[in-house]
Amino acid sequence: MDVVEQENQLKPRRRKLEELKALGLPFLPNTYGPELHKAADIQARFEELEGTRVRVAGRLMRVRMMGKASFAHILDSSGELQLYFKRDRLGDTAYEYFKLLDIGDIIGVEGTVFKTRTGEVTVEAEDVVLLAKSYRSLPDKWHGIADPETRYRRRYLDLISSEESRRAFRIRSGVVSRIRRYLDERGFLEVETPILQPLYGGGAATPFTTDYQSLDMTAYLRIATELYLKRLIVGGFERVYEIGKDFRNEGTSRKHSPEFTMLEFYQAYADYRDVMALTESMLSEVTQQILGTQDVTFDEQTIDFLPPWRRLTIRDAVLQYAEIDIDAVRDREALYSEIQRIGAHAHPDSSYGKLVEELVSSKVEPCLIQPTFLCDFPVDFPGSLLAKRRADRPDLTERFELYIGGIELGNAFTELNEPEDQRQRMEEASHLSGEEHAEVDRDFLLALEHGMPPTGGAGIGLDRLVMILTGSHHIRETILFPLLRQREDVDVEP
RNA sequence: GGGCGGCUAGCUCAAUUGGCAGAGCAACGGACUCUUAAUCCGUGUGUUCGGGGUUCGACUCCCCGGCCGCUCACCA
User: Fold this and answer.
1) Which residue is nearest to nucleotide B7 (CA to C1')?
2) Which of A25, A54, A178, A313 would bridge A37 by S-S if both were Cys, CB 3.0 to 4.6 A apart?
3) A163-309+370-478 architecture in CATH?
4) Quick check: A487 pLDDT over 80?
5) Angstrom distance (rounded) from CA A109 to CA A384
């Protein structure tokens, strides 16, 4: 936008501010005193507050002027509140002052609580003051912001104009604090492990690479917290968790963001069955606390969070949804032709484990709407690198992935604590051709050699959990400021 | 990275076959002392994402570029 257009947009608001200043009443004070009534509070406590004087502040959202009296709504952190401005009550000068306000201005009002003929709780203003000028107009009052890009880039506008968006981020905040409380109450210690790491690990993702000048070294932004948290288990902190950002230098999708928030927790002397029980208990309890129900609507389906959740082995899942018995088809070539027979797609050069994964993601995952622990993954299934083998079936690992609404929310194992098996599997993985596998983390193996108790652990994608709980269909709806390409044409004042 | 779609007033969107770029909201002027998408009268704000081309004439067609979205690939 060029300067002339900006002037056209900004000029009337500047002019009105000058006119308002000229009236001689107070304007733009440095404080309004934090002891304010909240909109929602006034509505909730109407009986008690009716006829009393209250002090409120917020952003002017809508105004209906009718000559010598007007109605308006302000928005504060608790919601909207109707205000009534009457010339007879305010006096001529203050009413002129009110008429010079613009939608979007932040105002403070003192007045008396009453109810209109239509029954809406309202504050009749006896005093009004402009607290902050909005030099720019708000988004369309009826449609809000339609362009998702604008919602992400200028989240403040989205929050001002969309109750749905405000709700989603309050839910997000609630989820994080309730999870903290749940784990704290059960003796888990919240810790912080490095984000800048000399080696990356705990997953097979491509990392962001950066450069630490002072030590003249390459550093990576973490892709997972796992390997450091397990060092803490070795160190004797028997229950630890971390909630923080992981970073993956990969394509985005509605389920993938380059930075996302992960909960990882580890519990010594537990296995993956204990972790399942903890996970379903925690998530159902948190859901109940946040939404007041365990029935969550997502994608026009009702998801029931009440435990116990379904447990389904990979073998049973593939048998049920793809009608292939992977225990009977143990050979890569045979499995490949079975997959072709049912018309699913698979890469011709995938390993056996990778073929199973492709089958699971195309045939099984979309069917897992109700909370489901998919368990007992083949040892060469991608992502099983850090999972311990089953004693009775060394070709399988004690691992589960949690699915809700067809989305993978978490990944968990009985942690592999045998250093030799871990070393061999890391070395094999690091030699896989063309794949994004981390170097063998010798420092981590050294820790395991000191002895790690049997441990169960899980990673849960909190952004995705929030997607389910808020009915969001894109992970960006759950991230306040998702990364977007920088724009050069940002329109600011000259 | 590939394919498809989109980008027009501050906001939400129209514009026929290629023929004067429009409406609602917001804004501005006026009326209105219980409105709530207030209403009524009046005013039209523009580098049609950027650059190039075809044409008498381009929002429209072609080429290049930008950004966004969907989708595929990738992503344990």
Assistant:
1) A147
2) A54
3) 2-Layer Sandwich (3.30)
4) no
5) 61
DSSP 3-state assignment of A55? strand
Domain with CATH 3.30.930.10 in chain A: 163-309+370-478
Cβ(A298)–Cβ(A478) below 8 Å: no
* Residue at minimum CA to C1' distance from nucleotide B35: A71
Give CA–CA dist A42/A56, Å, rounded.
10
- Longest CA–CA span in chain A (Å) reads 89
A81 C-beta neighbours (distance < 10 Å), count: 27
The answer to whether A83 and A57 are in contact (CB under 8 A) is no
Q: Is the pLDDT of residue A494 over 50?
A: no
SS3 of residue A491 by DSSP: coil
Q: Which fold has domain A7-132?
A: OB fold (Dihydrolipoamide Acetyltransferase, E2P) (2.40.50)
- A56 CA → B21 C1’, Å: 45
Average pLDDT over residues A434-452: 84
Nucleotides of B under 7 A from a protein CB: 1, 9-13, 24-28, 31-39, 45-47, 66-76
The answer to whether residues A333 and A362 touch, using CB atoms and an 8 Å cutoff, is: no
User: Which residues, 6+ apart, have CB-to-CB distance to A162 below 8 Å?
Assistant: A144, A145, A151
Q: What single string gives the DSSP state of each residue in A282-341?
A: HHHHHHHHHHSSSEEEETTEEEE-PSSPEEEEHHHHHHHHH---TTT--SHHHHHHHHHH
Nearest residue, CA→C1' of B12:
A143
Distance from residue A9's CA to nucleotide B25's C1', rounded to whole Å: 15
How many angstroms is C1' of B53 away from CA of A488? Answer: 26
A215 token code pair: 């030590």
Nucleotide nearest to A386 in CA–C1' terms = B76
Q: Is A38 exposed, middle or buried (0-12, 13-18, 19+ CB in 10 A)?
A: middle
What is the complex's ipTM, to 2 decimals?
0.84
Nucleotide nearest to A157 (CA to C1'): B11
- The ranges of chain A annotated as CATH 2.40.50.140 are 7-132
The mean pLDDT of chain A is: 90
User: A146 CA to B54 C1', in Å?
Assistant: 35
Distances (CA, A) of A217 to A111, A127, A196: 63, 62, 11
Quickly give A1 CA vs B48 C1' distance in Å. Answer: 13
> Among residues A166, A167, A160, which one has the least CA distance to residue A144?
A160
Nearest nucleotide, C1' to the C-alpha of A138? B11
pLDDT band at A292 (very low <50, low <70, confident <90, very high): very high
Rounded distance in angstroms from the CA atom of residue A386 to the C1' atom of nucleotide B38: 64
Q: How far is the CA of A5 from the C1' of B1 (A)?
A: 39
